[in-house]
Amino acid sequence: MKRRGFVALLIALIFDPLRSVALAICNPALVRLQQKSRRQLVQVRPGKSPQLGHYFIQWYGHSSFLIHSGSQTKVVADPNFNVTPGIQADAVTVSNDHFTHNNTGAVTGDPVILRGITFRQTWNPIRTSVKDITIINIPSQRGQSWGGAANSIFIYEMGSLCLAHLGNIGHLLTAEQEQVLQRVDVMMVPIDAMTNLGFDDILKVIEQVKPPIVIPMHFDVVRQGELFASFAQEHYPVKRFSESQLVLSRAMLPKSTEVFVLAHPRAVSLGE
Q: How far is the C-alpha of 186 from the C-alpha of 163, rounded, in Å?
């Protein structure tokens, strides 16, 4: 009995940090995590107090977004060639090093560059805060057409909202990934169905997390977005927007999953 008790305690010590990450993300003051094979207690750096209320997201096409907190903090996720040169931000997150995700030079304001993948194509763990936005990443892989290369899922906490950007994910979520993403309110999901997941598997990923809002991304042809919307509406309510930006608050979150299809920036600029 003593041996069994010791084994149970040992298992708890090993896996408890991962459980704590899952519980703490998007509600953290103190995050317990496992990093470089050592358990550490990491204090989230203080920034400005989050101003609860409204938060702003703008889609620049492909997988690129501007994420704006309730104060003045701005983060650009996966800047691509559509990002207007000169846009200012406090931080840039890069899920992988493909040029359609890695146009960091387009962002000004001396931002912190947070690369989820090292130059050796291995996962680069990130646990930090930029002013009032907490940023964390978890490892994943790209699709088979990329040879299963490394990909980084980024999670952003700002005030009362939790967002996840799946980058170029090419597989269903593992049990650990699913657990960490359970508190996500808004999930940005790649839908090109060629270099990443097919529509059926995308819906399976959505079902694994069940976020209130899903935003399709990673497509450059307007028709592709409409094809996914038509497919998804057999399973979830779909809302189509005439603009490529969205103002969010916790009060407006749906009670169950809905798909928010933002207008493709190309269509907006061409008046399509």
A: 5
Over residues 209-243, the pLDDT tens digits come to: 999 999 999 888 888 899 999 999 999 999 999 99
Q: Which residues of 223-251 are buried (b: 16+ CB within 10 A; e: fewer)?
A: ebbeebbebbeeebebeeeeebbbebeee
Q: Which CATH code is given to the segment(s) 47-270? A: 3.60.15.10
Give the separation between CA 149 and CA 160, rounded to whole angstroms. 33
Burial of 142-179, coded b for 16+ CB within 10 Å and e otherwise, reads bbeebeebbbbbbbbbbbbbbbbbbbbbbbebeeebeb
Half-sphere exposure of 74 (CA within 13 A, CB side): 15
Query: Smallest Cα–Cα separation from 60: which of 215, 192, 197?
Result: 215
Q: With contact defined as beta carbons under 8 Å apart, do 177 and 153 qualify?
A: yes
Question: What is the reported pLDDT for 77?
Answer: 94
What type of residue sits at position 122?
A: T
